[in-house]
Design goal:
Blueprint: H1 5-25, H2 35-38, H3 42-73, H4 76-87, H5 89-101, H6 106-128, H7 135-164, H8 169-198, H9 200-219, H10 235-239, H11 241-248, H12 250-265, H13 268-271, H14 273-280, H15 288-308, H16 317-337, H17 341-367, H18 372-404, H19 406-423, H20 436-440
Length: about 450
């Protein structure tokens, strides 16, 4: 990390944490770069748990929104519109959020964005309480939740290195992916049961309440200060600094292209899961079984993500990226061809494991290359690819699914993953890869 007051404060905090952990863990050595090593940092633990609680609420809302949209319209196109409303703002506002995150107090910024999402999640609940809710107003409220989420993502990603240091960053990224996917397991189960018992409005109210957990966690910690960076560039150059970094660094550029293409063309099954469940597997999207299907995917994704910071902590991340893409392509093809619910629960879990092993390894490879001065803006591009292009993919996929069926769309996505298996070569011995091995060894 660059030198500055923030780093000195971080080092003092770390020494206190070492004393605390010595009492708890005794003299047992902890390998750097692992999930366990990242958890030694007290501030990281607190922020991590707050984000975990909030993400449970987010996935309660996400899974119910898709099911609710399909339930009131029976239209794959409207499901695509809702997914676009959720994730589309990331295409325009993630870069703005990344720039702001590199310029302001990230703690205050994250609290503000959490409160914005809380307010408009209550707005979603207010809309759906009606017997015949306005589809247009529902989309508007979901978009406004998405606005806060779009800017929250890069700001949150940018604080991770300050919480754990560069050497423990791979473990922190693995844990962050793991909590996202643990919430994919817990949230859909709670959401689907609550949807059945009390209706969608109370699910969205519950999500609003969970934003208070991340607000509380941020308020009780002191985040390390950012080092002062003097930039002599126009606002446009500052805004596009992430693109400049991607063009200058082959590994960063290839990571971003991979996540953009994958999210755009190979992830239709996520947004269209209610359609897959209803048409291919005979599962009612309003049923508890649908929640179990989504939770099965999340369980696999959880194991895939946490494996990068545990079992595969010291395994080549470029190799994991390519192996996972190949496994994803094969498993998605099998999932597309299934017509029974029981085997689908197991296959979708394997699919989730490959998906998030790939995403976590790719994210780790990317972040190992970044300097703090531009981290927020580069991670904004990652959020745009990881979330924003999923919105476009689902918006386009909706009418295509209606025309040719969900199975063909899923098999096409598997073919895209297979092509990316060839493209996503991040090895050091590829020309101009530079210092990849050093970065990934951390």
């Amino acid at each position: 990390m660059p030198s500055g007051s923030g780093e000195g404060e971080s080092e003092r905090d770390f020494s206190l944490e070492e004393i605390e952990d010595a009492v708890v863990d005794g003299d047992s050595p902890i390998s750097t770069g692992t999930a366990r090593s990242a958890l030694r940092h007290r501030t990281f633990r607190i922020v991590y748990l707050g984000a975990f609680a909030s993400n449970i609420g987010t996935w309660m809302q996400n899974v119910v929104l898709g099911a609710y949209a399909y339930d009131i319209t029976h239209s794959s196109t409207f499901v695509g519109v809702i997914i676009f409303a959720q994730l589309g703002p990331a295409l325009l506002l993630a870069a703005v959020g990344g720039l702001i995150a590199d310029k302001v107090d990230r703690k205050k910024f994250l609290i503000l964005l959490s409160m914005e999402q809380l307010v408009f999640s209550l707005g979603v609940a207010w809309v759906v309480r009606a017997h015949s809710p306005s589809h247009a107003l529902l989309v508007v409220m979901v978009v406004l939740v998405g606005v806060g989420s779009a800017m929250f993502g890069p700001a949150y990603a940018a604080i991770l290195p300050a919480l754990v240091g560069r050497t423990d960053l791979p473990g922190a990224i693995s844990l962050n992916s793991a909590q996202m996917n643990a919430s994919r397991v817990i949230g859909p189960v709670i959401g689907s049961v609550a949807y059945h018992l009390v209706g969608p409005a109370w699910v969205f109210v519950g999500n609003a309440v969970t934003y208070l957990f991340v607000v509380a966690s941020l308020m009780i910690v002191t985040l390390p200060l950012l080092p002062t960076v003097t930039l002599h560039a126009s606002r446009w150059r500052e805004l596009t600094a992430g693109l400049t970094t991607a063009r200058a660094d082959r590994v960063v550029g290839r990571c971003l292209v991979t996540v953009f293409v994958f999210s755009l063309l190979a992830l239709a099954f996520l947004g269209q899961m209610p359609v897959v469940a209803a048409h291919n597997l005979g599962i009612n999207p309003k049923s508890t079984n649908y929640g179990v299907l989504y939770a099965s995917f999340g369980t696999g994704a959880l194991f895939g993500a946490i494996s990068i910071g545990t079992v595969f902590a010291h395994t080549s991340k470029p190799m994991i990226v390519r192996v996972s893409l190949l496994g994803y392509a094969v498993t998605l093809t099998g999932f597309a061809l299934l017509r029974q619910a029981m085997p689908a629960y197991f296959v979708v879990a394997i699919l989730g494991a490959f998906y998030f092993a790939f995403i976590t390894a790719l994210n780790t490879a990317l972040q190992a290359r970044l300097e703090n001065a531009v981290r927020g803006r580069v991670m904004a591009l990652w959020i745009m690819g990881f979330g924003g292009t999923v919105a476009i993919g689902n918006l386009v996929a909706g009418p295509i699914v209606a025309a040719i069926g969900i199975t063909s769309v899923l098999i096409f996505g598997a073919g895209v993953a297979l092509l990316l298996f060839w493209y996503a070569d991040l090895r050091e011995n590829v020309a101009h890869a530079g210092e990849l091995e050093v970065g990934l060894a951390q």
